[in-house]
Amino acid sequence: MAAKPKAARSGIPTRQKIRRTLLVASLLLMPVVINYGPPFLVIEGSANRVNCLTCNQVCSKSLDVNAMVQSGSFANPECILCGNCVDTCPKGNIRYAFRWSR
Ligand code: SF4
Predict the structure, then answer these.
(1) Is any ligand 1 atom within 6 A of the Cβ of residue 43?
(2) Using CA atoms, how far apart are residues 5 and 2, in angstroms rounded to an integer?
(3) Ligand 1 centre from 61 Cα, in Å?
(4) pLDDT tens per residue, range 42-77
(5) Residues 6+ apart with CB under 8 A from 80
(6) In a domain, 52, yes or no
(7) Contact 97, 42 (CB under 8 A)
(8) 79 lines ligand 1 (CB under 6 A)
(9) What is the total count of domains within the chain?
(10) Closest residue (by CA) to atom 8 of ligand 1?
(11) What is the CATH number of the domain that holds 87?
(12) Domain contains 78
């Protein structure tokens, strides 16, 4: 008798289970995508910032990231979503998010 693959014995999902889960998830999301369009990747900040201005120093487009956090809007067409500000914020107050509109 052939031994079961190690992944199946340990309870780790097989590729087939992962594919099936992704298929079901995409089918469940399809009405949302049809009604609202695909989600956009955006940067967002939270109000409890520390004003250290590290985000301004690391921005690859030299944007005033701190001002964007203060205004609550990262809708700047020059932002290329590089994530430098996300990676370097010492408090983790700037993050990636998905939105249905910009
Ligand atoms: S994602 Fe990049 S370009 Fe956009 S504000 Fe942050 S550091 Fe600047």
Answers:
(1) yes
(2) 9
(3) 7
(4) 888 887 767 899 999 999 999 999 998 888 888 889
(5) 60, 61
(6) yes
(7) yes
(8) yes
(9) 1
(10) 59
(11) 3.30.70
(12) yes
Plot region of 98 (φ>0 → left; ψ -120 to 50 → alpha; else → beta): beta
Structural domain including 88 reads: 40-99
**CB 56 within 8 Å of CB 76:** no
Whether the Cβ atoms of residue 90 and residue 54 lie closer than 8 Å to each other: yes
Question: Is the beta carbon of 61 within 6 A of some atom in ligand 1?
Answer: yes
What's the confidence (pLDDT) of residue 13?
73
Report whether residue 44 contacts ligand 1, using a CB cutoff of 6 Å.
no
Residue nearest to atom 7 of ligand 1 (CA): 59
Measured from the Cα of 43, ligand 1's closest atom is 1
pTM: 0.64
Instruction: Determine the distance separating the centroid of ligand 1 and the alpha carbon of 71, expressed in angstroms.
Output: 15
